[in-house]
TrEMBL record:
<dbReference type="InterPro" id="IPR049453">
    <property type="entry name" value="Memb_transporter_dom"/>
</dbReference>
<keyword id="KW-1133">Transmembrane helix</keyword>
<dbReference type="InterPro" id="IPR032692">
    <property type="entry name" value="YccS_N"/>
</dbReference>
<feature type="transmembrane region" description="Helical">
    <location>
        <begin position="152"/>
        <end position="169"/>
    </location>
</feature>
<dbReference type="Pfam" id="PF12805">
    <property type="entry name" value="FUSC-like"/>
</dbReference>
<feature type="transmembrane region" description="Helical">
    <location>
        <begin position="35"/>
        <end position="68"/>
    </location>
</feature>
<feature type="domain" description="Integral membrane protein YccS N-terminal">
    <location>
        <begin position="84"/>
        <end position="331"/>
    </location>
</feature>
<feature type="transmembrane region" description="Helical">
    <location>
        <begin position="130"/>
        <end position="146"/>
    </location>
</feature>
<dbReference type="GO" id="GO:0005886">
    <property type="term" value="C:plasma membrane"/>
</dbReference>
<keyword id="KW-1003">Cell membrane</keyword>
<feature type="transmembrane region" description="Helical">
    <location>
        <begin position="410"/>
        <end position="427"/>
    </location>
</feature>
<feature type="transmembrane region" description="Helical">
    <location>
        <begin position="80"/>
        <end position="100"/>
    </location>
</feature>
<feature type="transmembrane region" description="Helical">
    <location>
        <begin position="457"/>
        <end position="473"/>
    </location>
</feature>
<protein>
    <submittedName>
        <fullName>Uncharacterized membrane protein YccC</fullName>
    </submittedName>
</protein>
<keyword id="KW-0812">Transmembrane</keyword>
<feature type="transmembrane region" description="Helical">
    <location>
        <begin position="479"/>
        <end position="496"/>
    </location>
</feature>
<feature type="transmembrane region" description="Helical">
    <location>
        <begin position="503"/>
        <end position="520"/>
    </location>
</feature>
Length: 716
């Protein structure tokens, strides 16, 4: 076949894959949560119209909609608290917003102050940022609706009641589907871990694009760490009832095995140059090793597909046979090959045997209803793995500084909102609050996410507007508009985290369908919707560039410092355990978890840096080296940790203590250097070596203000 014919071959979607993806989407908690929100906002409106109390229904609708963002993954107790606080906040904001009918010059500073105050709540973490978002939505939409039949206080109280209405629905949903969220996050963990192992298998091939695969491996490690954090919170903080106790205990054990698989993989780094050299004359070993790794990855995928059906769980025969075959080949190699090569391949096989044992344990936990043979995890001890959020009021005062990322974001957002409202009022836009909504939804503390969301919002709005106009001309039934509006809203809410561009398109569809019921001039609605989106997105992007911008190269010093501190704490825990022996203490496991988390956060910070303008990507190659060094150091510590846990060790020698002391001294020197002090590498023999050369400190490296005229296309 010619190259031309191959190139022109049309892409034909696989119907089975499309059906599978659709089923997965419809069964997801994001869709069920979106359906719940759709029901919560639609029912009050319908009942209000039918009974002649439309404004009451609308207020309840707004209250439910604005309180729903706090219904995110986690224990139901935390959700309930978040929804309740959101309901209280939107009630207060709606009450205040009802009286904001001043002249523009007086209104703007009040609007800016309220925006800053509400946005500043985000200093208390992720859940607080969702509550803050609810308050900002209520503030903006207080300009959109002027109650004619209800008093302002009545309207505000009904909005709060709408939040309570949504909380009741969320509670009912959790009673009906108590396991849905746990199963979904476990499913994601299976699949992400499977992909992680699969990529490690691909890396064995000397012909593979290892740079790209290693980059994806770092991304996956970050995704898995984030996923583990959410799942850990769900499993540990969820209150157990008598019917769910056994279920949660087993899922917590499965989760522990999955975390162990990731940590075991990281603690067994592979020197691929040596592997290439090792297998150069024995390519059959590469094939056999890859088949074993891919089979492990496949088994995790099959476990995910099996769900709660024990009969569909994959058997151990294929994996056991693969390991036996490789063991036989290795024994033959031991008789003929070099001892060093033999030892390396033995270590690789030992690693895969350890992963196989974890897989078998997961399948036993899923297939056996009796947990008596398993040592259950002490939930009181397990709670120590979930770091509590600091809600000290002094945290607000500590963040009232331009050093605070949230302070700068809140200030930037308030200025953008004031400018957006002024432009919308001065140029007589149809709905100035649409500009404000766009700003609030798009603008984020980081440049990369703001830029991406601005682009996706514009493209999604254009696509949604075009499709909406086409459907409006084809369909003229107002009931059909209402139905399509609700369906579009549900899909939009379900897609917010999965694909923001698609979500923006369906939000536009929903808005246009609703306006099509109220006004015949739909074309002007679409035009203004697109114009408002362009203005809001443009203001968000310009504000991010010019108003107290937050660049990752400035924050990188802190990210490196946190990672090094966590690694140092993990090293100290390993040293203490090696000296004292005995059972592995919980503090040791927590230190290990924190080290993995902070190293993953460092990788994420570097990834965000790659999304920023080239002029702000200072010393990218050297920072990339720091990121890789952190990962390499952590992998070495994890390998040492695994070894001393599974092998008998002698009493700690003076040489061991001296080596540990030297490493800790050097890590302390690194931390001091990050604070701007010139440091030398500590050496027990009395010799010192400057860190990063004679005239440099790590602080200089990370805070060099000179733009680097380099095209960074390498480390991503």
């Amino acid at each position: 076949m010619s190259l031309k014919n191959e190139t022109l071959k049309p892409f034909v979607p696989n119907p089975s894959e499309i059906l599978k993806e659709s089923q997965h989407f419809l069964n997801s908690t994001s869709f069920s949560r979106a359906f719940l929100v759709g029901f919560a906002v639609t029912l009050p409106i319908i009942l209000g119209i039918r009974s002649g109390y439309f404004e009451i229904g609308l207020a309840l609708c707004f209250g439910a909609l604005w309180s729903s963002p706090s219904d995110v993954s986690g224990s139901f107790y935390q959700k309930a608290v978040g929804i309740l606080i959101s309901a209280i906040l939107v009630t207060l904001v709606s009450f205040i917003g009802g009286y904001l009918h001043f002249e523009l010059l007086l209104l703007l500073p009040i609007l800016g102050l309220l925006t800053f105050t509400i946005a500043f709540i985000s200093v208390y973490g992720f859940r607080a940022s969702l509550i803050s978002f609810s308050g900002l939505m209520a503030l903006v939409l207080s300009f959109a609706h002027d109650s004619k039949e209800l008093e302002i206080y009545q309207y505000a109280l009904l909005i709060g009641l709408g939040g309570i209405w949504y909380l009741i629905l969320a509670k009912l949903w959790s009673i009906i589907y108590p396991r849905a969220e746990t199963e979904e996050f476990l499913s994601e963990t299976y699949l992400l871990t499977a992909e992680f192992l699969e990529i490690r298998g691909k890396l064995v091939d000397p012909k593979a694009d290892r740079k790209q695969l290693q980059s994806r491996l770092l991304e996956l490690q970050g995704e898995l760490t984030e996923n583990h954090g959410t799942l850990r919170e769900i499993l540990i903080l969820t209150r157990r009832s008598s019917g769910r106790s056994n279920y949660l205990d087993k899922r917590l054990l499965i989760f522990t095995e999955l975390v162990g698989m990731l940590e075991t993989a990281i603690s067994n780094p592979v020197n691929y140059d040596q592997v290439d050299k090792l297998f150069k004359d024995y390519p059959q070993y590469i094939t056999a090793l890859q088949e074993l790794i891919f089979q492990m990855s496949l088994q995790l995928k099959l476990i995910d597909q099996a769900g709660n059906d024990r009969s569909k769980l994959p058997k151990n025969n294929i994996l056991r046979q693969s390991i036996d075959d490789i063991s036989q080949r290795i024994s033959e190699w031991g008789d003929l090959g070099d001892y060093e090569e033999f030892l390396m391949i033995q270590n690789i096989l030992a690693y895969h045997k350890e992963q196989f044992e974890k897989l078998k344990r997961i399948k036993r936990l899923l297939g056996d209803t009796d947990t008596s043979e398993f040592e259950l995890i002490d939930r009181k001890e397990a709670k120590r793995f979930v770091e509590p959020q600091d809600y000290d009021p002094k945290l607000l005062a500590r963040n009232l500084s331009f050093k605070s990322l949230i302070f700068r974001h809140s200030l930037r957002l308030s200025v953008a909102v004031m400018v957006g409202y002024a432009l919308g009022s001065f140029f007589t836009f149809q709905n100035p609050y649409w500009i404000l909504l766009t700003i609030i939804v798009i603008m984020r503390p980081s440049y990369g996410l703001t830029k991406t969301r601005a682009k996706d919002r514009i493209i999604g709005t254009l696509i949604g507007g075009i499709f909406a106009l086409g459907l409006i001309f084809l369909v003229t039934n107002p009931y059909a508009y209402g139905a399509m509006g609700v369906v579009s809203l549900i899909i939009a809410l379900a897609m917010v985290q999965r694909n923001y561009r698609t979500s923006a398109a369906f939000i536009t569809l929903s808005v246009v369908f609703i306006y099509a019921i109220l006004t015949p001039d739909v074309l002007s609605v679409v035009q203004f919707r697109i114009l408002d989106t362009l203005v809001g997105a443009g203001l968000s992007y310009l504000s991010m560039l010019t108003l107290w911008p937050s660049w990752e190269y400035v924050e990188m010093r802190e990210s490196v410092e946190k990672s090094v501190n966590a690694i140092k704490a993990f090293l100290t825990s390993i040293e203490t355990y090696y000296i004292q022996k005995g059972d592995v203490p919980t503090s040791y496991k927590i230190a290990r978890k924190d080290a993995f988390l902070e190293t993953s956060n460092l990788s994420s910070a570097f990834q965000r840096m790659t999304q920023e303008p080239k002029s702000k990507q200072r010393e990218m190659n050297k920072i990339y080296e720091l990121v890789v060094l952190n990962h390499t150091f952590l992998a070495s510590l994890a390998s040492l940790s695994t070894y001393i846990q599974h092998h008998g060790t002698t009493e700690a020698s003076e040489e061991f203590k001296a080596a540990m002391n030297t490493i800790k001294q050097n890590l302390e020197q690194v931390l001091n250097s990050l604070k701007g002090e010139k440091q030398d590498i500590y050496n027990p023999n009395g010799k010192t070596v400057p860190i990063f050369g004679k005239q440099s400190s790590i602080s200089d490296l990370l805070q060099d203000k000179t733009p680097m005229p380099m095209d960074i296309g390498g480390p991503t």
